[in-house]
TrEMBL record:
Gene3D superfamilies: Nucleic acid-binding proteins, Winged helix-like DNA-binding domain superfamily/Winged helix DNA-binding domain
InterPro entries in alphabetical order: CvfB_fam, CvfB_S1_2nd, CvfB_S1_3rd, CvfB_S1_st, CvfB_WH, NA-bd_OB-fold, S1_domain, WH-like_DNA-bd_sf
Matching PROSITE patterns: S1
Domain S1 motif: 150-214
Family as reported in the entry's similarity comment: Belongs to the CvfB family.
Pfam families given in the database record: CvfB_1st, CvfB_2nd, S1_2, WHD_CvfB
Protein name: S1 motif domain-containing protein
Source species of the chain: Sporolactobacillus shoreae
One function term, GO molecular function aspect: nucleic acid binding
Amino acid sequence: MDELKAGTVVTLNFSHKAPFGYFLTDGKQEILLHENDAAGPVDEQAPLKVFLYQDHQGRLAATMNIPDVRLGMYNWATAVSMHKKYGVFVDIGINKDILLSKDDLPDEWPDWPEAGDKVYVSLKLDKKDRLFAKLADESIMNVISVPASGEMLNKDVDATVYRLLLEGAHFITDDGFLGFLHQKETNGRIRVGQVIHGRVIDVKEDGSINLSMHPRSYELIDEHTAAILHYMEGRGGAMPFSDKSLPEDIRNQFSISKGDFKKALGKLMKEKKLYQEEGWSYFTEVKK
C-alpha cells in the first residue's frame, strides 16, 4: 500500500477504540478518527473510507466527511478568515479550515478573499508535507467553462473573480462563461473571490465575454432622476436649479455633469412631474 498522505481518500481498517474516537490502520500506521469526525456509526468489522488531513498538532488524522476538494481535485471552497501574516483560511467541508497561503495570493491583502467569498481550489503538499489550498489556474478554469453565445450580449450576469491583473480581473459566471472585467469598467477595487454583477458588453470569438459594472444610460438617468426628486421633496417641491444652472453648481449639489442633469430633468418634464420657471424647478402640483 502507498504511504498515507494528507489530502487523499483511503480505505482503512478498524484497529481499536479510544476515549476520544477510533484508531484506524493500513497495517503499518495508525490514524486517529476523532469522534467529531465520525459521520456515523463505525463498524469495527468493515473497512472504512476516510479523508486524511493534518490536525492542529500537525498529525495525520482521518474524517468520514469526504470533501470534494482534494489533492488533484478542484471545487469551490468558502473563505472563512483572513490573516495578513499567513493568508486566507478556507472551508472545504471538514472540521479543520485549510490555509490558502499568502504566497499564492495577490501581493496586497485588500485583494484577498473576504469571509464568505468563494474560491475554486485544490489541495497541495509543501516540501514538509503540510496541506495547503491551491487556487485553480487558467487551464483548470478552461476545463470547467462553457462558451457564451452572441445572445448573451447586453445581458446581466453574476460572476466570481478568480484572478487579478493590473488591468482588471478574470471571472467565471454562474453559467460557466469565462471573461474579463477591465479596470475602467469596475465600480471600485475588486478582490479574488468577489461576486460581481455586470452586463455583457462583448462576446469574443472564443466564447469568452467582457463585462461592465457601470449602469446602462437609462439606468443612470433613473438614478439621477431619483436623486433630483429626493432633493426636491426635501425642499417642499422646489429647487433653485434648472437646465440653465452652472455646471459647477450642479456638480457640487448632485455630483453629476450638467449633461446628465439635463437628461434627467428632460425625462421628468416629459413625464410631467416638474416644470421650470425663472431658473427654478417645481413639482407640477406646486405653485411658486
